[in-house]
Design a protein that fits this description.
It contains three helices and three strands, in the order H-H-E-E-E-H. The protein is mainly α. The protein is rod-shaped.
């Protein structure tokens, strides 16, 4: 006697009994046709499942390819925009001494570039430097970098010195 401890086992056992009684009442030729149709339906189901899997896999690959292409296009556009911003910032830095409201005389300013943009030796035109001014040019919402802040803090804190280096 089979194990009928669970409802699923009892149901399966009852279905097998019903199937066996029906099959016994049919002719052998009809039983072969039913078996052949069952095998064909099963094969079609398996083939459909395999094709659906492959189609889904290909669709997923195409989606990944499209999203990769979109990411690359976005990265290119972002790089171009950043490059333009950097170039316009560099041009602005070079032109800044001749723009209105520049804090020192343009002829006293010397472009450094890194880590700060200008060092101005105020009074050079008159023949005597009265003040040295460090100028950092910023545009838009840009902020000081860590190094630029450290230069500012060193100057404000008075950590500036004069060194004369002689080569012999």
């Amino acid at each position: 006697m089979p194990n009928l401890s669970s409802p699923e086992h009892r149901l399966f056992f009852c279905m097998n009994i019903i199937y066996a009684k029906r099959m016994n009442s049919l002719s052998v030729q009809t039983q072969y046709w039913i078996m052949a149709i069952s095998i064909i339906v099963f094969a079609i189901t398996i083939i459909t499942a395999v094709l659906a899997y492959k189609a889904g896999k290909k669709h997923g690959f195409l989606d990944a390819q499209v999203s990769e292409n979109e990411r690359m296009e976005h990265a290119r556009k972002d790089a171009i925009e950043r490059s333009r911003a950097v170039l316009s910032g560099q041009i602005s830095e070079q032109l800044a001494p001749w723009l209105p409201d520049f804090p020192v005389n343009p002829s006293d300013a010397r472009f450094i570039g890194k880590p700060i943009d200008f060092v101005a030796f105020c009074g050079t035109d008159e023949g005597s430097v009265s003040e040295i001014v460090f100028v950092e040019v910023k545009s838009g919402k840009s902020a000081l970098s860590y190094v630029e802040r450290s230069v500012r803090d060193a100057v404000v804190g008075g950590h500036v010195r004069w060194v004369e280096y002689r080569i012999e």
